[in-house]
Fold:
Amino acid sequence: MNLKNLSLPFVPLARRIEPWPAGPPGHLDNSLLASLADEVFLAETSPVAHRMPPLVMVGETIKKHVSELSAQLTNLYFCLLRDGRVVSPPVAVINRHKDIFGDISVDWRHPRTNHKYRGWKFVRSPLHLSGKSLCLASTGAETFFHLLFDSLGRIWIAEKAGFRIQEFDHLIVQQDTPLLRRFLELFGVGSSRLVDLSKVRHVRCEKLFIGSYQSAMGHYHPGFLDWLRLRTRNRPSRGVDSAEKILFLSRAQAGCRRLLNEESIERAFPRGSTHRVSLEKHTLDEQLALFHHAAAVVAPHGGGLSHLAWARPGLPVLELFPDGFFNACYWELSSSVGAKYGCIAGKSAGSGIAATRDFTIFPKLVHDSFLRLVEGKLG
Structure:
């Protein structure tokens, strides 16, 4: 490691604190939060947990991973830290007393000896930011899912607290991307305010404004989903090839969890009924239009399914998993927007952890499962 321009480590000396310890639904004790922050502008209890609808699925490899799930939303807060810091990777938010906000610094919750970044002992000297800085950074927010639900959710929380995004001098982000810039453009903010943590790594702010997550990871606050749809409704309309077709999301260019027989699966459907697409080749407006106009969605598990936030009620969604792995996040998102969700598992190829392995699924199984989902007979 090049030690030039590096300061002595302050991060390992910090205490990890959860501003709001876990409590029953509706429970709120913000005395600790008030002691960590200089000013608290929003402190709101979470809605009562709601149970998920029945999951329609095929294959024992999925069923054994699923129990009855309920979604407990987190409490919301928005506050000010004077002389606050943000470092990355992984993202940590720290007050001037060297307390790490554990709930929004998720990778720092665990003992450092158990963390994959445990050998990282130095951080760069900070970039000093004057004025008002809003932290949108979150570990993983370079991906679409975490950008959408972890980073943009902070803008919603800031607005709930009575702030406008335009009044902040700096927006601290995990990574400056075209998708992020387009979202901010839709929100009426230019990219000149962005501070990219993937390049800066360490910022020290005169006034650092931070917000909680809009909900626990993999869960969705209904207020945020309504806000997101409202704030993006005036985007330019685009003509798309998926109108009234089954939108088949490809992961051929992904680094993991690729569906190795995509072409065979697509051929199992009537010719002309599907539109296979790699979302990374399209602009944000085109991506949203693809989902808006699709007749149905078939896709391997991946961030592209985050676009279900804009799905119409009743949209059939069939999610594909490698065997031995299941993640309920898009089941819950589909439930939140009223989409008709089902999932099936295939056969993993190669070694490694189940969540990242490439896989195949029999084309006829995908086709028949999709028909049963549409007819309400998958289960």
